[in-house]
Amino acid sequence: MAKKIASLERPEIGMKPRLVVVLVATASLGLGVAPQWSGRPVDLGRPRLIPEAHAQSMIRNLIARLRGETMPTGVVESNGRIEATQVDVSSKYPGRLAEVTVEEGSNVTPGQVIARLSSPEYEAQLRAAQADVQHSKDALTAAESDIASRQSALEFAKSDFERGAELIKSGTITKQTYEQRKRNYDSADAAVKSVIAQRDQARSKIKNSEAEVDRIQSIISELTLVAPRLGRVQYQLARAGEVVAAGAPIVTILDLTDVYMTIFLPAGDAGRLNVGDEARIILDPVPDYVVPAKVSFVAADAQFTPKTVETKDERAKLMFRIKLKIDPQVLQTYYTRVKTGVRGLGFVRTKADVDWPADLEVKLPKPPESAAPDKAPEAVAPAGPAPDNKASDTKTPDAK
Fold first, then answer.
1. pLDDT confidence band for 64 (50 / 70 / 90)
2. Is residue 271 part of a domain?
């Protein structure tokens, strides 16, 4: 239609008005609005010209609509990227890495063995503690047998002393003999109390030695590192044979059940959001799909716009950080396809009564055959306290 109108114009008409007529007709057709023709003949010798500013505004609206930059009132968008909670798995104690059972990209389940450390020092301490336990048990056995013999001697000394007390009244024995029997009785009683104390001390030493054995066994069990949660190995920071310090991370795991997009919005939009509001995410690699999400965090303090975030209004220097958490059920279903670092657009509604546009209705691909595992494999690691794990946001570690 635009070409037909241009061909009917008089040649003496200037280039600039003719260009405006063509662009206006094109904009009308692109917006789905048919040109309005009256019932009377059109005067082709006097074409109707549209003001240039109005024509440029129509063209800008057309381009914005074609690019998807125009949003309904109450729906705002912002650029962001997919992130996930990051967990560094490390050992509480130093040692040499005997083996690392996973690689970068491996999927892990809670309780799955990730790495094992060897420490001959702790193993030697364990053997020494076990020997102390056995020594204390032997001392207890000796003390209990000694108590039996001492008790027998005490009973004899007591009966001898009691007979002497009756005989001294009748003058059958001398006072010196009586006092000797009394000293024998007191000595036997003291000997019994002494061996009883030795028995109690041996029991206490057994408890202390067993506690030391438990402590060292706990350390050795923690030298076997297990996955603290369901996820994927993002980085392997140490290799078998390396000596690692206490607290040094061995692998970094991404928790793929806690995936979110971080976006930045001005105060006027962020102030209308509540935690739990619905959101939508469209990723650049798969723009045909719309992922459901919810607002899980709204920053209380504003910050300067990061360099990686583009804003329409360059004057909006202070922005509020918003986290859009993807539906956990969706993550469970598409577990094998979840990837972090992917960029896209996040959409939120600043008005609760506004419906989502048709192109922002949830649309997901066909579910894959394999989903996230429900539980860890059985008997993957010895029982013991969990490793020293520190959760943080996704980040790239320093190169080693």
1. low
2. yes
Q: Is the dihedral of CA 294, 302, 311, 262 positive or negative?
A: negative
Query: Per the structure block, which two tokens stand in for 48?
Result: 């109707």
Do 265 and 366 sit in the same domain of this protein?
yes
Spatial separation of the C-alpha atoms in residues 146 and 325, rounded to whole Å: 71
Is there a contact between 376 and 112 (Cβ–Cβ < 8 Å)?
Answer: yes
Q: What is the CATH number of the domain that holds 165?
A: 1.10.287.470
Question: In b/e form, how buried is each residue of 309-320, taking b as 16+ CB within 10 angstroms?
Answer: eeeeeeeeeebb
How, if at all, do strands 388-392 and 303-304 pair?
A: unpaired
Q: What is the pLDDT of residues 373-397, one digit of tens each?
A: 655 444 344 444 444 444 444 444 4
What CA–CA distances, in Å, run from 126 to 111, 122, 286? 25, 6, 56
Give me the CATH number covering residue 259.
2.40.30.170
Do 259 and 338 lie in one domain? The reply is yes
Q: Say if residues 302 and 320 touch (Cβ distance below 8 Å).
A: yes
Question: 21: domain range?
Answer: 2-35+47-61
Helix axes 175-222, 120-170, angle to 10 degrees: 160
Domain count, the chain: 3
Polymer length of the chain: 400
**Cβ(271)–Cβ(143) below 8 Å:** no
